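Hey L., structure's done. Input below.
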Amino acid sequence: MPNHPNRSSLGNSARNPDPGEIRSVRIAAGLTQAQAADMIYATVSAWESWEQGLRRMHPGLWELFHLKIATTAASSSGTSKPYGNNRKIGNRSSD
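Output:
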C-alpha cells in the first residue's frame, strides 16, 4: 500500500528495532526478559519473539522502553526527578 498517507517514509523517523538491538539494550540495562517486558506492559512471550526475530517490535514500544530505562537510571542515581519535584499534594495542614 505505498500510496496510503500513513505509509509514507517522509518525515517519519520511527523504525522497528532489529532483534540484536533489542537484546543488547536490554542486557546493557541489566534486565531479564521478564523485567523488560513488564516495564513496557508486554508479555514475556512477546519479548522473546521480538528478540528471536519472530515478530517486529512496534516503534512506540521501543521508544517507551528507552524512556523507561532512562527514567529508571536517572531515579536510581538521584540526579533527576522526572515527574516534577515529587511534593506531596494532599493532606496539608492549615495555619
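Residues 19-74 form a domain with the 434 Repressor (Amino-terminal Domain) fold (CATH 1.10.260). Residues 80-95 have pLDDT under 50 and may be disordered.

-- N.
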